[in-house]
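dumping the sequnces here before i forget
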Amino acid sequence: MTHVLELRGITKRFPGVLANDNISITLREGKILALLGENGAGKSTLMNVLYGLYQPDEGQILVRGKEVQIHGPNDAIAQGIGMVHQHFMLVPVMTVTENVMLGVEPTKHGVFLDQEKVAKRIREISDEYGLEVDPDAYVGDLPVGIQQRVEIIKVLYRHADILILDEPTAVLTPQEVEGLFKIIHTLINAGKSIIFITHKLKEVLAVADDISVLRLGKMVGSADPKQATTESLAALMVGREVALTVEKEAAKAGEAVLVVKDLFVRDEREHLTVQGVSFEVRESETLGIAGVQGNGQTELVYALTGLLQAEAGEIHLTGESIKQATPRRILERGVAHIPEDRQRHGLILSFPIYDNMMLCTYYKEPFAKGVSLQQKAIFENAERLTEQYDVRTPNIYVHAGTLSGGNQQKVIVAREFSRPIKLLIASQPTRGLDVGSIEYIHSQIVKKRDEGAGVLLVSSELDEILALSDRIAVMYKGQIMAILDAKDATKEQLGLLMAGIHPTAEIRN
Amino acid sequence: MSNLTVPAPSAEKKESKIGAIWRAISVPVLAVVTGLIVGAIVILVSGENPISAYGALFTGSFGSPAAYVEGFSIWFSSGQTGALVRAFYPLTESLVIATPYIFAGLAVAVGFRCGLFNIGAEGQFFIGALCSAFVGYSLRGLPMIVHLPLAILAGALGGALWGAIPGYLKAKFGAHEVVNTIMMNWIAFRLSDWLLKGPMKASGFRPVTPNIAASAELPRFFPDPIRFNLGFFLALLAAYLLYWFLFKTTLGFEIRSVGANPDAAKYAGMNIIRNFVLVMVISGALAGLAGAAQVLGVDHWVGQGFSAGYGFDAIALALLGHSHPAGVVLAALLFGFLRGGATNMQSIARIPIDIISIIQGMVIIFIAAPAIIRGLYRLRGAKDDDEAVLTRGWGK
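..and the predicted 3d for all of it:
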C-alpha cells in the first residue's frame, strides 16, 4: 500500500503554547483521512504546516515517500497539495473563470488574458467530477454550496491530487452536504486522496476510510470507521464520556410570552425576507425554527430584538407591543438574545471580558451609580460568571477576542442568562463550537426553559432543533411552512419542509 | 477558595498590565526613535552634523544646562532673576506650544474612540479662537473671575457648534463626517477671513481683531518674555477629565463601545446616533478650547493664518497617543519640544526648520503603518489593540 502523504513527528511551538506535539499521520492513496478534533486541538496548525504557512520546529513531511521542504503555498501546490479553506477565498464580483485563474493567469501574446482557455478547462474539470459549475457565472450570485465547488475547481485546476478540505460542511445545508459527499467520492474514484478536517462525528463515519483524532495538540488515537461509533469518537476527541443527546423532560407550557402575527420584515437591502410569519412562544416551552440558512430567520430575529424595524404585522411580548421598540426597551422587558453572529453583535472583541460581561446592563446598579462605573462590581460580576459558566480564560482582563469560539459563546450565554429573563432568543447558539461546549450550552438552554422562560431557538442544524425543541416551525422563503409537534416530527419530514415541499402534498400527488 | 490564593491573581494582573502598557506604547516610542534616526540620516546626507543639530534641538526645547547653572547662581548671589528667566525660556516656550496641541489632540482622539474621524479640528480651532477673542475684547470692565471663564466657555461653545453640525448631518442624513468636517474647515477659514477684514477688525491697517481685555487673559506665572500660562494646566485638566469620562463613566463606555463595534453597541441597546452627535460636540469643544487657550494665553488677538495647522497635527497626535488622553498629552509634549527646539536648531546648527516636519512625517508614517516598526524591531503583533483605535465608517 502506498502512502501518498506522511507527516512524521510534527512539532510546532508558539510562545507559551505547544500547538502540535509530535504528531504523525499518514494518508493512503485514493483514500479519505478524517482529521477529527475540537476547536483548538491543533488541526488547523497541522494543516498550515503542511501547506507551508508555518514551518514546523521538528518533524518531516513525506510526499510519495520522499521527504520534501514546504516553505509556502506555492511549494505545496508544486507537490500536488491543494487546500479548500473553510472561509472561501473568492472574489464575489468576479466570474468563476476569473476567480480560478487568479494568481496563475495564462496569457495570449504575453499581455492578453486567455480567459477562454481557462473556461474550457473549468468545463472539463466540471464534467469530469460532476461539479456542474458555469465558468461565466459571477461568484457572488452562486449559492454557498456551489461556491465551495469553485474552490475545489481552483485546487484541481492547479493539478492537485492531495486535497485538504477544512471544515467543508460547516456552511452547507443537509442537501448540499450530500452533494459534497458525492463529489468527494467522484474525486476518490479518479485517484485523488483527501484529508477531511471536521468536528462533526456523523460525517466522519459517513465518508472516512481512516480517522485520526487530535486533542490539545496531541495525536490521541486512530479509529476504524467500521467499528467506531459517534460515542466512542466523541469520548476520544473530548477526553471523557459526552452526552450527545440532551436530557429533558416534557414541556409544561404556560401562558404565551411572545406572540407574532403576520410579520413582514425587510432586510438592509430592502428585500422583503420575512413574509407574513405568525407563531407564539409560551412559558417553559422551546419553539425551534428550522430552515436552511438565509430563509428569513436572521431578519425575523432582528425584528424581534429591535435590530430591524418590522415592515408590518404585530409583535407582542408579555402583552405589550414591541414592534416599534428599541433594543434596550425589549431587553428591559426580559428578553435575552444569543445572536447569530457572536463576533458582530454579541461581543466587543477588543474589550476585556469584564466589560463584555455587563455589555447590556452597564448603566444599571450595581455596575453604575449615576454615570460613574463601579469597577469593583464589574470585576466581581465577571469573576463570578466566568467561574459559574466555566469560561476557560487566564483571567477576566484579557480581550474577548483572545478566547476560543466556544468560550466566547459562553461569555455571551453567561451575560444573557445572568439577568431575569422571560424569553430567550437563541440564534445558531452552537455554530462552529466543539462537542464539549455544545453539550454545555444545550444543557443551559434546557435549564432556562425549565425555569419558566420561553425559548425561541433558531438553528440550521436539524439535530439541534430536534434535540431541544418542543414544537418546530420550518421556515422557507420568508414563510413558515408548518409548525409541528417535536414528538411527531421526523428528520425526513423536516428536510422536505426545509426544501419547500409539503410532505402531504407529495402524497396527494 | 482559600485566601492564600489571592496574591497570585493580583500579581498576574499587575504583570499583564505592565505587558499591556508596553504593548500599547512600544510602537509609538519606537516610531519616534526611528523618526529621529531617519531625521539624523537626512541631516547627514545634507552635509551637516546630526549630533550638533540634535544638541541644538535639545537646548532649544529644554534649555541649556549651562544657562540654568548661571541663572541659578546669579539669582542666589544677587537676587536678580533675569538670567534665570532666560534659562527657563526655552522649556516654558515648548510647553506653551504643547498647550493647544494637547487640546486639539484630545479632540481628534475622542472622535477616534467613537469611530469618528474629525478632520475638522482646524476649523473648530478657528471658530473657538474667534469666539474667545470676541468675548475677550468686546466685553469691558468685567472682573477676571467672570470674564475669563466666559471667554473660555465661548471658545468651547464655538468649537462645539462647529463640530455639532457635521455630527448632526451624519446622524440625520448619514453624511460622512470626513467630508463634512473638511467642508466645515473651509467655511471656517473663509468666515474668519471675512470677520477679520470686516466686523471683527481692529482699527488700523492689519486684518486682526482688537486685543482682548486684560481680564480675559489666562494668567502668566513668570515675568516677560515667559509666556507660560494657566492654559497648560487647563489642558492637563481636560486630559484627565476626558480620561475619567471615557473610561469611568457609562457615557464613555457607550462611546467606546460604539467606536469598537457599532453592531454590538446597537445590540446592547445603545443609541449610536446620539453618541455620534455627543462625541462631535465634545470633540469640537476641545478643539475650540485649543483656539481659546492660544488666544487668551499667548497671542491675545486673532489674525489671519492664526493656527499653525494645530487641527491637522492633532490627527497625528491622536494616532501617536493611541487615542488615549495620557498618550495624547505625551505626544503633544513631544511635538511641543520638537517645534520649540526647531528655531534654535536653525539658528545654531543651520539646519532648516523643515527637518522637524520630516521627523514628524516619518513618525506619522510609522504610526500609520505599524507593520514597518514591528518588522524593523521584530515585535509581535497585537491585532486587537490596533483595531480598537482606528476609525471605521469608510465606504459604509
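Residues 1-14, 382-396 of chain B have pLDDT under 50 and may be disordered.
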